[in-house]
Amino acid sequence: MGGPTVVVFTAEFDVTADAVIVELERREVAVFRCDPGAFPSTLVLGARFRGSWTGHLRTDRRVLDVADVACAWWRRPTPIGVAPEVPHADWVRAEAAAGLRGVLAVLPWLNNPDDIRAAEHKPLQLATAAQVGLSVPATVVTNDPAEARAFAAEHGPIIYKSLTMSVLDGDKVIYAGPVDPATLDDSVAVTAHLFQQRVPKAYELRVTVVDGNVFTARIDALTDKGREDWRADYRNLRYSADTLPQGVADKVRRFLRLRRLRFAALDFVVTPDGEHVFLEANPNGQWAWIEHEAGLPIAAAIADALEGVTHD
Predict the structure, then answer these.
(1) Rounded to two decimals, what is the model's pTM?
(2) CA torsion angle for 248, 254, 255, 260 (degrees, to 10)?
(3) Does 311 score more than 70 pLDDT?
(4) CB–CB of 53/66 below 8 Å?
(5) 180: DSSP letter
(6) Average per-residue pLDDT in the chain?
(7) CB neighbours of 179 closer than 8 A, spacing ≥ 6?
(8) Is the peptide bond before 40 cis (omega within 30 degrees of 0)?
(9) Which residues, 6+ apart, have CB-to-CB distance to 81 below 8 Å?
């Protein structure tokens, strides 16, 4: 390819990545897009170390010289897959992931994939938020029914939130919702559960941060279902551009620095008293619909970050 190139690692269909790629191509910035999930079947890696790493990634249509990478964006790639009939398939898959991700780790990143994985841990997010001075709800993570009941008695009313991607059996979404303490029975022992003190809501904020630039969208839910978890009722949400108080914005920027992130999407509740309460952060969060609904120039900001554009 030759020359400074932005690399986008994502799945074949990704409209969010498309928005940034279109902006980069409008600026005549070279872009190499591929899905790491295609390795090792159709994505080919060749890398050598002699004082530094050199080499290439090759798809069936294009070749990338790793020395040309200006910045890389780990968006939403599919997992590396190996056919089960391949001998020692689990080992082959693990070796493929270790080899590819190990070489990619030396690239300049928007967010390094290893830092993304670390920052996805909700307990670490809450600890970091408290460290920078953000308000955080009382929380317990437990598989002990007695511990869960004691927490509910001390901090009720409480809600339950999934610790992971919130999808059950491939299609059922687990939304945050209230918990009746009477239901905290032996089923709690089946796995880890995150229970949290319920925070009174005036409205919520989705805060998207790119290289210290803070884009804030206010979300007003118009139904009880949406007020419990706005993701549960997208059709009945009202969006508007908003602004974080300077003190909160500064703490958010410090949160990202501590977690070694240049990009993240954070969720806040604003209480009836005007307190900004941190809920969680997604180091690889979605933002395209917020850009559209609230008129926030997030795609351009990500393109700036990938291109290396700075603003005074």
Answers:
(1) 0.92
(2) 150
(3) no
(4) yes
(5) -
(6) 94
(7) 152, 157, 158, 159, 160, 195
(8) yes
(9) 37, 41, 93
- Residue 1 is predicted with a pLDDT of 53
Task: Give me the residue label for tokens 């190499």.
Answer: 32
CA angle 149, 152, 156 (to 5 degrees): 165
Angstrom distances, CA of residue 121 to CA of 32, 142, 211, 283, 289: 30, 15, 21, 10, 24
pLDDT at 96: 96
Tell me the pLDDT tens digit for each residue of 148-175.
999 999 998 999 999 987 777 767 788 8
Burial class of residue 305, CB neighbours in 10 A (0-12, 13-18, 19+): buried
Distances (CA, A) of 20 to 6, 71, 247, 265: 11, 13, 30, 16
State the average pLDDT over residues 84-90: 93
Rounded Cα distance, 220 and 207, in Å: 14
Buried b (16+ CB within 10 A) or exposed e, 120-130: bebeebbebbe
DSSP helix/strand/coil, 179: strand
In the block, tokens 């991607």 appear at 165
Tokens at residue 302, please? 């990500």
Structure tokens at 173: 């979404």
Sequence letter at residue 130: A
* H-run or E-run covering 249: helix 246-258
**255 with 268: CB under 8 angstroms?**
no
